[in-house]
User: Fold this.
Amino acid sequence: MARWPAPRLSEFARKRTTHARWTLVALETEFKLIERLVRRDERAFNELVRLYEHRVFSLVLRFLGNRAEAEELSQEVFVQVFKAIGSFRGDSKLSTWIYRIAINLCKNRNKYLKLRHAHETSTLSPSELRPPHGGEEFAENGAPAPDANVPHIERPDEMLAGKQLEQIVQRSILRLEPSFRECLILRDVEELSYEEVEQITSLPAGTVKSRIFRARAMLKEMVERELGEKIR
Assistant:
């Protein structure tokens, strides 16, 4: 008796199935890592640092604008993560929870630095804004991000213009109020979703979107003022 051929999955369906499978694997791996951290497994802590140190350092550096402060505070982030891992309820991704700790520490350090009249931050060069020790950029699963090691050679004049613009943008970000700065960095620099920004900042969706919109407008105005020309 003839049988109808089994229906073939469309390319879209196959991609969704593959993505769901990898998401499940990632969640299982994360759950096991959390279990080991709760048991105070030192190797698990080292693995956690390896997976997240570059992203945490980048976030802290963008927020504080001072490399020495960022290196010190990044270490404090992981100390706090290790101490508080038992309180992690799993209602968000582990990375989101780590970012929340990092942002709270950044805001506290920022207040402390202001009290010490240490608001004069050093001008960061584009090379300083990269992860420390020549580290690679990492994707969510800890693997090197696509095109992370693909060289791109620019003309000297383009390189100079790019570096100058990047410095202007970074200085302008540091002039934003912390409440606006955190939302802008999380969304536009770290490229997190609006939902993740809401979870990290504990702000309502409307407030997050409003602050990002206003931060972008203020940043654009400051950059245009320094450049002396309008930008699109």
